[in-house]
């Protein structure tokens, strides 16, 4: 093999095996360049006429071509110990990470110089601006809201460079000096005491409200109980009166039937009983009832003596006497022990 061929082969092998830098501008020149996976390249001819290069082995003529390679993967820049002020004038130190991804490699190469540094500067400025809108307590309690606000502000600023802001995450947030931290601790302690007093007061109010509701419910329950008892008593009286009415009606029917049977018996089958037969039947039934009552009085355990005069005679008088006898019979049945002598005229 001749010396020129060997030199050419060694030079080509050296160009093929040389690793390529991932920076935005490749200063070293070679016959070939390698665009890595996840990257895009732009080849310029004497500094103009850009041609997009996909991942793989690509031609690059020395002095004639210039290649810029752009990382299309998601990356992040760290912003550490950034001094800022909240809306309530509290000096704080903020640390966070800004995540971004190149969407359009052409604009990232030719619309801005060193887009990574500019993204960092935009992120720093946006953090100071957004933190100045929120109070210290808001930053402590709701970081997601601040992250979303930063994402919107930064994304709108770097979109024209072909770069998208995927998210911003606040990692650390603290007062800038110890004196401010002590003041904030005292403020938070006072706020906790205030909230505790509010909770205690609300608890007492809830207890009083509970007693009030209990008293109201008990009074309503007592009132309803009385109404229920009154309604029950009323219904009981109505039912008892209806029962008494029905019993009287049945007794009247039974008495009329007895009178009719006795009157037919007195008529001896000669035909329909007359009013005289019915009157005699009624008188006989009254006498039987009287005898039954007298028998009950005679068999009673009391030693009372009763005198029945002739003042009440006739059918009406008999009914009166029967009623009195029923009363006397009830009084004798309910009496216990020896009874005093009584005289009834």
Automatic annotation (TrEMBL):
<dbReference type="GO" id="GO:0016020">
    <property type="term" value="C:membrane"/>
</dbReference>
<dbReference type="InterPro" id="IPR036013">
    <property type="entry name" value="Band_7/SPFH_dom_sf"/>
</dbReference>
<dbReference type="Pfam" id="PF01145">
    <property type="entry name" value="Band_7"/>
</dbReference>
<dbReference type="InterPro" id="IPR001972">
    <property type="entry name" value="Stomatin_HflK_fam"/>
</dbReference>
<feature type="domain" description="Band 7">
    <location>
        <begin position="30"/>
        <end position="188"/>
    </location>
</feature>
<protein>
    <submittedName>
        <fullName>Stomatin family protein</fullName>
    </submittedName>
</protein>
<dbReference type="InterPro" id="IPR050710">
    <property type="entry name" value="Band7/mec-2_domain"/>
</dbReference>
<dbReference type="InterPro" id="IPR001107">
    <property type="entry name" value="Band_7"/>
</dbReference>
